[in-house]
């Protein structure tokens, strides 16, 4: 695996404080995930800006006023989402105009756009409550909305930017990438290119990872808040991400990529990929690179391993299929797992994991197969002295078949997720070695 | 299906201001969704409290200090998540202790718990950076963590509560429900029971649902902000929830449950369940009630239908297994789907959906089977004049086997989710009728 393509060194930007205010009772009541934070935070992060703060508040006028006043006083850029709709609980435009001492002026272009939208849906007259969406701040601009009635609003004062966006994600997202990002970049508030390098690792803990990479960080002036290099770790179920950036702009993106390549070299097989790919995606890429196929058999994990492959585009060519066997009959009928093997060693055993991996590989004609066997019964189920968290995974490869016992503490869902990741990581390491061997073989020829 | 157990009428609570501070660069950079807001907001909402504000900040010391100082000054309850880990960017404990003028004291019980955890993983010595997790605020308490090394921290002063929780959701969530909610309820900060009744429906749109239920709402003084009854709708991928509450406290929980029962009566088969159960869970309950079994076959949906059953406790007894067939060979070899049927009608066809449902039911000896066939190729794949969003679902029941064509607009992921929900809802309605028929049969005998 090679380092990502070098992108042109982004010009340094003056650090500015960005705040995002997200409005909505449905967010505070946990009924809807705050996708605006994920989206806007991600978009800004890729352009060298980390949101300083995201505040989620109710759509009540007093809450909007207090929060906007505070954020506008301290930040350089304030982005709001929501509260621009036609109903009586949409108050963002009016409240913020008042805080800024701006009057709202009627904008015929917006009215015409709303009218045109209503006509397209076969409506002939504009409901009066939609009319309030045709107003912009006196000293500001508006951002046309191709996917809804509420335009975004834009306002600048004393070097600060305010940007008010509509709440529905399918309206906010294109408006943000197509209109807001270019406007911010024009004013020098964003980098012109990507701003950080992320290494993703598997099978190594956060503290061990930090310790292993420390020599690289030290060689580049340490990974402190004030140094040229900034390092952040993020752990999730058997994977740890390490993100390298240079908020001060002292390191160019080529230098960051060179540092990342040194880290990769130190990590060996524990290095998984650059960026955001999942373990399953990395495995699929390795399978494709080696022109190999995969099958999966699961017992007791209810399709969790299989579903990791579900969202990978065009996966069907190398991922031939999967069997989720909840009953022993299914293992026997569908995968030729010998009945006596199950009765002698148990359904959750190394022997059974091996039989399932081989069975599904042979049935589907796959080069590789992963199997996983776990207790699927009640949380208290306990059989043959194995603890509840015990899981066996099996790996069938062209040169052999093996099983491993895994044991994790924690709730069932966590145990299964970790086991699935451990199984995928085992396959990944096997594929890395196999691809390396065939590359060596190719060199010798 | 019967109404939920009546719980004691929750005592009214004095309104208090709850703020949640979520820490983490990964949230602000959009790398991780803010699941803590969704979880904690939802849990508090069910106990009659709406979060006043959620603030997400970086894990930088200055940001934690500024935000905590501000939130602690204005709120009655401040909950923080994250920054209690062992690495150098975990600073919450230290910074907040300083703001509160509290010293940190070493707690041997926490050290022993961390030690014990490390021993279980086969580690004999405690890494020095884990030691800082063994400290609590001088005047405060700690919340044991059964799923990780960082305990939660609890502190009370002048009627205010501070609760600091670890960042990983699998650690935070059980700590919140098992320790934080009871502590807050004891102090009268939360209702003692659920604050609302939720009806979940399937296969009916939001506006139609509202119109159907309006007579019930009207009979109880309407569903306005000022009336005794408050009604909220929430739609998600083919399901609509209707939540009944009485913020004024004028209706007791028994009265709310009686109103919900009237709604249930009006809805007939469109009523799915009370509360939060998934379609798959409702199907499993109906299968268990009728002592029947289910199998699943998927082609082109990558295990999405199967994974709906994965998290249901003890599902293995009635959900016998599933096959995810990405290749036509898998359909032929494993499910006896005739090759000529695929070549004549196509892999995405009513005929193939029927063959897969029957095949998996017979192979696994299941009473019911659901199948689903969709295009799994590139997003532009198009075959036999079917649009890309076309999906066929098949249902095998003891008294017959049928297929249905579904067609949805939108991105692939949305289409698949809607198709999976439509398939499950079809099975649900079939099971409701079958169970009703056998109940009638039992009455006649």
From TrEMBL, chains A, B:
Which family does the similarity line name? Belongs to the CinA family.
Its ancestry begins with: Bacteria, Pseudomonadati, Verrucomicrobiota, Opitutia, Opitutales
Q: Which SUPFAM superfamilies match?
A: CinA-like, Molybdenum cofactor biosynthesis proteins
MoaB/Mog domain: residues covered: 19-187
**What InterPro entries does its record include?**
CinA, CinA-like_C, CinA_C, Competence-induced_CinA, MoaB/Mog-like_dom_sf, MoaB/Mog_dom
Q: What is this protein called?
A: CinA-like protein
Question: One Pfam family of this protein, by short name?
Answer: MoCF_biosynth
Biological source species: Cephaloticoccus capnophilus
